[in-house]
Amino acid sequence: MTKTMKKFDLKNQAFPGQETPGKNGSNELPLPDHIQDIKDSCPWFQRDFNLSEKDREVIRKYLDGLTDDEIIEIYYRMRDKKELWDGGYFYPNLQILFGTPFEREKDRREQKIWNEEYGESEVVKWYKEAKEKPCVWWLENHIIARHSLNSCMSCGACTALCPAAEFLDYNPRIIMETVQGKNEDAITQLLKSDTIWYCFQCGSCKTKCPRKNNPFGMISSLRQLSQIKGYHVYSIRGRQQYAARHLWGGNLWNRACTLYFRNIEVKTHRDFGPRHELCFNHKEEYFRKIGACPDMDGLLSGRKVHPETLHELRRLWQAGGALYLWEHIEDSAKKQADESGITIDEYHDKVKTEG
Amino acid sequence: MRVLVLGGGITGLKTAFTLSEFDIETIIVEKSSEIGGKVKRYDKIFPDFRSGKNLVKNLIASARNSPNITVLENSTVTNVAKNNRSYTASLSDGKIIEVDAIILTCGFEVFDATRQPEYGYSVYPNVITSMELESFLNPEGPTKGKLLRPSDGKVAKRIAIIFCVGSRNMKIGNPYCSRICCSYSTKQAIEIKENDEEAMVTCFYMDIRTYGRGFEEMYQYAQEIGVKYIRGRVSECSVLPDGNIQVRAENTLLGKPVQGVFDLVSLSVGMMPCVDAEELAGIFGIERGKDGFFLSKDDDLFPHDTSKEGVFLAGSITGLKPIRDCFLDAMSVSGRVVSYLTDLYKNR
Amino acid sequence: MKENNSLFSETGRESLWKRYIKDIPDDGYFLTLSCILGALYPGSEAMIPKVYDLFGLNWGTNPRPESGWSCCSGIAYHGDIMPIEGTLLTVARLWSIAQEIGVDTITMSCVTSFGIHCECRDLYENEPGLKEKIDRLLKQSCGREFEIPKYILHTSDVFYHYRNQLRDNFMKFQLIDKKTGTPLNVVDHVGCHYSKLFPEEHSLGGSEYCEVLSGMATAWGGKEIDYPERRHCCGMGFRQCMISPNRAGTMASVHKKMKSMSPFQPDLIITNCPGCQVFLDKEQWAIYEITGKKYFIPVLTYQEVAGILMGWDPYGVVGIQFHTVPVEPLLDKIGTPYNPSEAWLGINKRQVY
Questions:
Q1: Which of C198, C82, B310, B315 is nearest to A257 (CA)?
Q2: Can you give the pTM of this predicted structure?
Q3: How many domains does chain C have?
C-alpha cells in the first residue's frame, strides 16, 4: 500500500475551531463554572433515583414550560461550551447533561422532529406494516428470525450451557419449541413474559446446536417484536427497555457511543469496589494521564464526537428504524405511566431500579 | 460364473459364502491384511450377547475352506473396464481379473470423535470412544475386561455414555441417524453393570432408537438393572483437577440444565461412509447420496442394483445396518446376483 | 511447552485448534475502538495504537476529522434498542470509512463489535438483496458507498500475529515467577462473541480450544491452564449487567467461573473482551462483599499483559490503577519495577488525593 493513513492525533489539531493551546493550556481541570452553580439547585440535572416528589414536580414544570426550540438550543449551547485544558479543549458540561431528565426530554422532542423532517425510510415502513401483522408473520419474515431457526429436535444442547438457564427460570429450548409451534396465542404470551428478557445474548447456544439454529438470534428477534407490539411493558424485565432506550439510546444519540465513560457512577456501581471509587472521582485526570480524551475532541476513549460524524450516524439510525423503535418504546412507556398515574420521569426511575 | 466381492467384512463373507452354495465362484478383495471386518473385534454383540468374534471366525473358516471362494488380502480395485458382458478389474497388487459381476460390500468407517471437539476426545485421556470401551470390556482386551481409566489406571465406577456423537448433527455434515449406536451403547451399559454391580452408568441420549426385534427389550432390561438414561444432548465435557470429567447437558424431560461428574466418559461414535467411498464411486462410475453413502437404483424395488449394470451394493455401504441386517442383505444380494447371472448366461 | 500432566493433552489440544486458523494480514488496519474498554480500562485502548506504531504499521481510524469512527451499536443491538438494519448501517459506514482510507482489514478492540461485524458479513452472504438495500439506505442517508471488507480481525488477532516479535524485540519480562523461575499459571477467557458465533470462519482456534489468548500467554512465558468452566460466559449479558437489578446473573456467572478456576491456582486471567474484562475483574469485589471469599485473581487484557512485559509504566501507560483487583502482586511475581506511591497521582504527577 502506498497511501499512508492518518493516525491518532491526540492533540486534535485537525479539529475545526481548534487552536494550539500551547503554554496557555491549563493543567487544572476546568470546572463547569456557571453551570456548577446551578447543578445542585437544578433538579433537571440530577441523576438521582430518589428524587423528592417536589423535585419531580419542579422538573416536569420546567421541562413542560420549554418549547422544542428552547430545550434543543439550551442543550447544545451547554454541550458545546468548551475550555482549554491539558493541550486540548474540554467540554465541562457533558458530565452534567448526560442521563438527566433534561437530556431525555430533549431527545424525545428532537427525535420527533427528526422523524418528521426525514420521513419514513423503507425500513420504518416495513416495521410499521409488521406491527399490524400476526406474530407468526414476523417469525416467518423478519430477517433475523428467518435465519435463526431451521427446525428444532429439542435436544437441549443450547440449554445445557446457557448461563441464564443455570440461574434463572429460563430455557432457550422451550422458547425455540414455542416458536416452532407457530401458535399465535402461545407466542403472544411469550412476548409478554419476563422469559425472553433473561437471555444473556452470549451466543453459547449457537455454537452447540446440531441443527444449525441460532437461539439467541431468535430471542433477539422476539424482543424486537415484543417492543414493536408494545408487549414488553407487560413484564418487569421487559419494561426495563425504557431505561435501556435512554441509557444506550441517549448515549448513541448524543455521544455516538452506546456507553459513556461516566455511566459507571459509583452510586449505581457499588459492586465495583472501593478502588473503582478512587478512579471514578478523578476520572478525567486519570484518563488524560493515560492518553484518553475524556470529554475532549479526539479519537480515544471518552471523546466528544465530531458534530458531523454524529449527524451522519443520526441519519443512519433514523433510516435504520432505531428512532421508530425508540418512539414506540416511548409511547408504550407514556401510556403505562399515565395508567399508573406517575410522570414519565418517575416511570423511568421505577423501571430502571425495580426487578 | 465369477463374481468379485469388494470388502471382506461380514457382508462380503456371507455374500461370497451364499453364492458359493450356488456354485458361483467368488473372489473376495480385502483392503486390510485380514478378512473379517470390524465385527471380529467385538466380544459380544447385541441383542443376544453372542460372541461377534466366534461368529466371524466361523464365517472366515467357511470362506477359507470353500473351493469356490478365493481371498485376496492387502488388495483393492484400482480400475475397472466394462467389456461386452463382463468386467475386467485391475487390482492394486497388479493382478487383473475378469468377472461377470461386482458386489461392493465395503462397509462403513467409524466417526472421528475429534471432529466434535466439545467432548474433549484426544485432549482429556478419560474421554474415550465406544470402540475403546468395547476393547476395555473384552476379557481378552488390554485391560482384561476391567474398566481402568486411562489417566491413572483406577477402576472407573461412574461412567457416562454419550449418544449421537457424529450422528444427527448438521454442523459436522452428518444429519443422519447411525441406527446402531443406541443399541450397542445399551449393550455396553449392560455389560458394565453386569461386570460390576456398583458401577453407575448414565446414558445421555436424544431419542432412544432401539427399533429391532429384541432391541427395545434390551433397553428395558438395562433400565431394570439400574442404567440411568437422561434425555439431553451433551454440550460439553471438561476435566476436573482429579481427572474426573464434568459433563453438561439439559435434562430435557425436567427442563433443567444438569452437570454430572464421571470417572470415565465414553463417546458413542456414529458411522461414516467408508474412507475410500469417493474414490470407489469414481472407479465404478456410481452415485452417492448427500450423506456420502452409495445410492441404489431404487431403494424399494432394486435395493442392490446401481446405475451400472452388473455392479451391486450390499451391507452398510448403502447406510448403516446392524449385524443381522447385514447378513440379510448378503443373502438378498446373492439372490439378486444369481438371477442376474442366470439371465446373463441364458442370453449368451 | 511440555505435557503438563496426564489429565490434559497439550498435543491433543494443538491438533484441535489448528483446524481453525485464519488469515491475518501484516499491515493496513482500520481501527475501531470499544465503548466499554475505553470507559473502564482506557490504558488498554490507548496501548493498541502504541503497539501498532512499534511495528511501524500503516493504520488509521479516519481519513478526515469529521468522518470519524463510531461505536458499532452492538451493545444497543444486543440490548434490543437497535433494529438490525440500524446496526447494519452503522457498520456499513465504518466499512465505508475504511475503504475511503484504502484498506480492507478492519480491526476492532471489542469482541461484541467483532461479533457484530462478522454477523453483518454473514447476513450479506446469506440474505439475497440485503447488500443492495443497505447500499441504497447508506447512500440516501449520508452519501456513502461501501464494500464488504476482506478481513475482519479482532485486535487480539493482531497481537497474536505479532506475539513472537513483541517478545523478541520489545519485552523485558516474561510471564515467569522471578523468584522460582516457574511459568505463571495463566487462565484465558475468550469473549463468547469472538469464539462462539462463527468458530469456523472467524475464531483463531475455534470455540473449544481457542488459541488466540493462550497462544499469546504461552509465547510470553506463561503456562496455559485448562479448567472446567473455561468456556462459560462471564455473564456480562448486555441488559443483564447494565440494568442494575439484573446484575445478579452476572455476579453468579463470574462466581461460577472463579470457583471453577481457583483450585488450579491461576496467577492471572487474560481476556480479549472488554465486557468480560470488566465483570471478571469488578465482580470479584462484589463476590467478596457477599460471600467473604477473596479470590482476587488479577484480570488483565492482552494489551495490558503486553504493556507490563514490555516494561511500560504500570500507572502512566498501562493503567493498572483502573483495576478493582490489584495487579501489583502480579507485578511482584513478574519482577516489573513500579512505584506504588504513584498509583493515584494525576497529570504531571499532581497529587489528587
A1: C82
A2: 0.94
A3: 2
